[in-house]
Amino acid sequence: MSKVMRYFRVVQVSLCSTWRQVRTVYRTGKMSDILAEAVKGAAAHPRPEGINFTYGTAGFRDKSTILDPVLYRMGLLAALRSKAKKATVAAMITASHNPEPDNGVKLVDPMGEMLEAAWEKHATDLANAKDEDIGSALQRIIDALDIDISLPSDVFVARDTRPSGPPLTQALLDGLKVMGSTFTDFGILTTPQLHYLVRCHNSRGAYGETTEEGYYKKLAQAFLKLREDAGTKKKYQPVVIIDGANGVGALKTRKLQPHLNDSLKITVCNDGSSGKLNEKCGADFVKVQQKPPPGMEIQPGQRCVSFDGDADRVVFFYLNKDGVFNLLDGDKISTLIAGYLGELVSASGLQLNIGVVQTAYANGSSTRYLEDVMKVPVSCAKTGVKHLHHKALEFDVGVYFEANGHGTVLFSDQAEQKIKVASQDDSLDSGKREAATRLTLMMDLINQTVGDAISDFLVVETILSTRDWAADDWNMQYKDLPSRLLKIKVKDRTAVQTTDAERCATAPAGLQEAINKLVAKYQQGRSFVRPSGTEDVVRVFAEADTQAIADMLAHEVSVQVYQLAGGVGEQPQPPSTS
Ligand code: 16G
Ligand code: MG
């Protein structure tokens, strides 16, 4: 190295170290100010003694009356997350399908994904820190992750329609203000709309315009284009009834409607004008009760759609000509979507692998149909959207749905690129180009950030219309096996542990062996148990070739759980045979 170069190198090193010192002093000074403010701010959001909050499968969820301190702290954490990611993040205030008095909060990462799993622990720690310990709890997170506190932060905020939403939003905003964070409060949105907006923003508009109106426009444009060549239909009727769970999905469907012109006649019921949120209506009610919400007037064959309270979950149902209720759940939706996308991919001539991700709750018939008839690979993930989402990333086109109606489709960057190029490649024959063009429109119609009831509903309508199918035709793809879901109270639900995407219990000792023996007694029997992530219970699922046997198997497995995993209260009683 020449003398001159050496001189410059010395100057450079000393400048760098001076800059590091200045930065450390600045960061430390700024940090202690902020931490002191955070502790001061907690006085207005005191944490009650004796409650332990947990960032569960879908964020914090509890009685809204005790959540104020949690929201304040999540404001603090959201700002830190934004600084750590050097991007805008989001916070959604909702308790989804829970009753109206509950509420909750979950954080959304920059591309609209769920909060990174490693941060769930930080969220739980901060939510449980005593008021006076908030500063040190924040400090631990900052140190562990080497977060530069002097960086700016920006957070998008939205809530569902719960009356507790506005004061809880205020608590969250207080946390953000203490951190000096900028924010945008979007007011009432569906959960997937907020996920969508944060992705639009961070992708600098590449994913769409960062406005609610932009969301409707993007979906509606794709939907209308996909219908342009729709000839006369014999079976498909462009008429649906939507059960909005008396929640945000109803309000937002009304806002979408004018964008759809007259392509679809939508009647919204349970729109919040009289009934209570999620009370005797919504996707959870319909799926669990296996019946339409009371008061809905339904003609045989009429397609009905149920959203949950924050519209990230959807199921379809109809009454057949004999008035018998039929549910078209997440499994039926994923089969429909995977079948159609698979056809488009092969018609386009593109080499893309399509896979479906389910959970252990998926009906056995759906898995068999996908694997044996459709020849589509199926992966099983643990319960909870984040687990399915993660697995779906392994495919070029990953379709994921929980049976309860949470789900969407993910296209890898490479798949997206190939599809776009093919749609504009004049050297391809028109059939291939047309298929690729339809795939680009399907990508626009699908909210890839997270399951979205409104988007999924439009995707299903598009496919049914293209296929000229009535609800019955869709339902006939395969016949669901009868199943039963039960819950058992135990002293400590963590006594039950599982592996193999929850299909096998590893604790307590002897439980899985007992389940195996019971399952072996019955035709097409299948059963598994898992601790709930949202309730203090162990869930038992059983499936068999008749309802009576599924009920019996679920009962027998419940007794084993009760006996081996420390059941509390009365031992489960056999199902009545009347
Ligand atoms: C949460 C999950 C849902 C899952 C359910 C299971 C999200 C957004 N929501 O609602 O996917 O099906 O929990 O509840 O991930 P459980 O653990 O009580 O059975
Ligand atoms: Mg929900």
From TrEMBL:
Q: Which reaction does it catalyse?
A: N-acetyl-alpha-D-glucosamine 1-phosphate = N-acetyl-D-glucosamine 6-phosphate
> Which Pfam families does the entry link to?
AMG1_II, AMG1_III, PGM_PMM_I, PGM_PMM_IV
Q: What is its EC number?
A: 5.4.2.3
Among the GO molecular function terms of this UniProt record, one is:
phosphoacetylglucosamine mutase activity
Residue ranges constituting the Phosphoacetylglucosamine mutase AMG1 domain according to the UniProt record: 210-315, 329-469
What does the UniProt keyword field contain? Acetylation, Carbohydrate metabolism, Isomerase, Magnesium, Metal-binding, Phosphoprotein
Q: How is the cofactor bound?
A: Binds 1 Mg(2+) ion per subunit.
User: What is the designated name of this protein?
Assistant: Phosphoacetylglucosamine mutase
Query: What species is given as this protein's source?
Result: Branchiostoma lanceolatum
Q: Coding gene?
A: PGM3
